[in-house]
UniProtKB/TrEMBL annotation:
Entry GO CC: cytoplasm; membrane
Protein name stated in the entry: Glycosyltransferase family 92 protein
Subcellular localization: Membrane
Chain segments annotated as transmembrane: 17-34
InterPro entries noted in UniProt: Glyco_transf_92
Gene that encodes the chain: LOC100646149
Membrane-topology descriptor: Single-pass membrane protein
Entry EC no(s): 2.4.1.-
GO MF, one annotated term: glycosyltransferase activity
Highest taxon, organism lineage: Eukaryota
Length: 593
């Protein structure tokens, strides 16, 4: 509100001021009531100071009490508070929406407030187990179940185990962990701060370092020199096994820029499991510390998803940043097409998306076709919705460096579950030219590759070709296909592909990749990062854009002038139209049914 304007226009201003005082008074009354309730809840004789008696208990208890009391004045003030906070998240004028709520109620004097039936969530309070389950889903890196078990060990003298013996070291309570921007945990050292995102058990056959835990995170140092340690916590053991950190693997080339101390840089950190523990399977969790016996400020669940059999293809999509751009309809077409082509599952990471996109993602997540992992930027980087988008647009090097976190997290989380992992944007499709599916394509490609050299490659790359938006508009829409199906309608592409190895995308072989970059692996196990170039007669990376990437501005003119009709995608036309249209109908995109 602009208070300065108040000097001039008199009566409007007085009215506004009065309104404000009125609203403010009501808020204060509600707040006082609320605090009163809180205080009276605190007085309930329940607070044993046992370390195990976590906040969870407390929340649970409070909800129980709330439920049992439910006096009408409490109900109303809670309702008002909830309404106002919920509304203000949709508009910037929290005050005015509160006002609407209040006037609606006071304009209705004939109704007794005790007859009002607010639309509250009436599901029963959650049990502690249910709460833990929910928290585990929200923060997958937290070793909650194990912590719940482990915290029963009494503090006391340690026996010597492994190379170090620490007298004061105990398992960190989840309340001692230093979180950073929700999904990150922090370790400060004498020379550099670490932001840790996830930890994974790596026992791949080709790994020469033997079983190890790899940690994906960022360090605000280039070429970090600080010595650190990993504390491995095992189920059923009171004390951690402590080892020196083996390596910090940089996921970036210095020549790409941002090569400066003080900027958070992406790393995969490795700690070897000592031989004494090789047979024990994965540790339950891992903490990083500087000095071996430091009490940790972080504790990550060690992820190990190893099914009996691998499925074929996983697709990973970097943090979606489409807050205002309503990509929903195009996303449906893309998800359906990628699934028709053979993706077993699509793993999205999400920064900010439009509510309509959330609808789409929720729908497909329920069907098990996609999985969405929420994501934030670590350190001091912005996470406020629109501001974050502006930051990522302006700071492209930071954007690229941050993208490497979801890509490598996706690789390590799913390396035992899929034969191949592809990193795609939602405007890219790896299109087989002769085969109907990726499975058939890879059969053909493997035969060719093995004939040249009899070994699996770390990746199989596909050449990029642009399907630019305006190549359609000079030709008009195609009949018999819905206009809202962007890819089916855009079947003119530039004649030339971008150069070999430029803007390619790969099917990565997760048995061999150590660090992943958007376009190719940077470090690999075994015989290095070998990549087989899939011939353009077998497959192409169809890239649907309004324009080429900036660095190709000049060539882009030529791409535009030399376009060809390429209707490879129409092979999927019938199924695609049917699936996309049905989904849009189901989700109410054509109005209420
Ligand atoms: C801190 O680490 C950087 C490398 O990341 C190194 O160049 C520098 O010498 C270190 N400073 C000290 C005081 O050890
Ligand atoms: C333990 O110490 C021995 C001797 O100092 C060393 O060879 C070994 O690598 C250490 N093990 C670990 C896991 O750090
Ligand atoms: C290729 O290597 C596999 C084992 O890696 C072997 O079984 C096969 O006979 C080899 N094929 C050729 C043609 O050398
Ligand atoms: C296409 O590529 C060929 C071979 O690289 C080149 O000679 C030609 O100029 C390119 N054409 C266009 C329109 O870019
Ligand atoms: C998509 O968003 C617009 C604007 O918020 C809204 O009017 C429309 O109803 C939404 N569509 C669906 C299917 O929810």
């Amino acid at each position: 509100m602009k208070w300065q304007n108040c000097g001039g226009v008199g009566s409007r201003c007085v009215r506004r001021a009065l309104l404000f005082v009125f609203v403010w008074g009501l808020v204060m009354i509600a707040a006082v009531q609320f605090r009163h309730v809180e205080n009276s809840l605190r007085e309930t004789p329940t607070a044993e100071e046992s370390a195990n008696d976590l906040l969870l208990d407390d929340i649970y208890r409070r909800r129980e009490i709330m439920k049992n009391r439910g006096s009408s004045s409490l109900g109303l003030s809670r309702y008002l508070l909830q309404r106002s906070s919920a509304d203000s998240s949709f508009s910037n004028s929290g005050g005015s929406s509160l006002l609407t709520t209040l006037t609606t109620i006071s304009n209705n004097p004939t109704k007794n407030p005790s007859d009002l039936e607010p639309l509250l969530d009436k599901r029963p309070a959650k049990t502690e187990e249910e709460l833990i389950e929910e928290i585990e889903q929200r923060i997958p890196s937290l070793p909650l179940a194990y912590w719940n078990k482990n915290s029963k060990y009494p503090a006391g003298q340690s026996k010597t185990k492994g190379n170090y013996s620490c007298s004061n070291l105990k398992y960190p309570s989840i309340y001692d962990i230093e979180f950073n921007n929700v999904y990150w945990q922090t370790m400060r050292t004498g020379n550099g701060t670490f932001q840790l995102f996830g930890a994974y058990y790596d026992r791949r056959k080709l790994s020469r370092i033997g079983p190890a835990v790899r940690i994906v995170g960022m360090i605000d140092r280039i070429e970090p020199t600080v010595k650190t340690h990993c504390q491995f916590w095992y189920d059923g053991e009171r004390d951690p096994i402590i080892v020196e950190t083996l390596e910090y693997k940089y996921i970036w080339y210095p020549k790409w820029g941002n090569y400066k101390q003080g900027i958070y840089q992406p790393y995969v950190i490795a700690c070897k499991i000592p031989q004494s523990h090789w047979s024990k399977g994965p540790p339950a969790s891992v903490s990083m510390v500087e000095k071996n016996c430091d009490t940790p400020s972080n504790n990550l669940r060690v992820i190990y998803n190893k099914p009996e059999r691998k499925k074929d293809f996983a697709v990973c999509v970097k943090g979606l940043d489409f807050l205002h751009e309503d990509l929903s309809v195009r996303l449906v077409e893309w998800i359906e097409l990628i699934s028709l082509l053979g993706a077993d599952k699509i793993f999205f990471y999400q920064l900010q998306v439009h509510p309509n996109v959330t609808k789409i993602l929720d729908h497909y997540q329920k069907l098990g076709m996609v999985h969405v992992t929420p994501l934030t930027l670590p350190g001091g980087q912005p996470n406020v919705p629109a501001f974050q988008h502006m930051y990522l647009t302006k700071k492209t090097n930071h954007k690229r460096q941050n993208e490497l976190i979801p890509y490598n997290d996706c690789l390590y989380k799913h390396m035992y579950e899929y034969e191949y992992i592809a990193l795609l944007d939602v405007d890219e499709v790896i299109m087989p030219v002769k085969d109907a599916t990726w499975q058939d394509l890879m059969k053909r490609v493997l035969q060719k590759a093995l004939k040249i050299r009899n070994e699996t490659r770390a990746s199989y790359n596909v050449r990029n070709v642009y399907f630019l938006d305006d190549l359609l508009h000079s030709h008009g829409y195609f009949k018999g296909m819905p206009k809202y199906m962007h890819m089916l309608q855009h079947v003119y592409r530039s004649q030339n592909f971008t150069k070999p190895n430029q803007y390619i995308k790969c099917f990565h072989n997760p048995e061999r990749v150590v660090t992943l970059h958007n376009h190719f692996p940077l470090a690999c196990l075994g015989a290095g990062c070998t990549s087989y170039p899939i011939e353009t007669e077998d497959a192409q990376l169809q890239h649907y854009r309004a324009d080429c990437v900036k660095s190709l501005k000049k060539t882009c003119v030529q791409y535009r002038e030399n376009s060809v009709l390429d209707t490879t995608i129409w092979r999927y036309k019938d199924q695609l139209i049917e699936r996309v249209t049905r989904t849009l109908e189901t989700l109410g995109f054509f109005g209420p049914s």
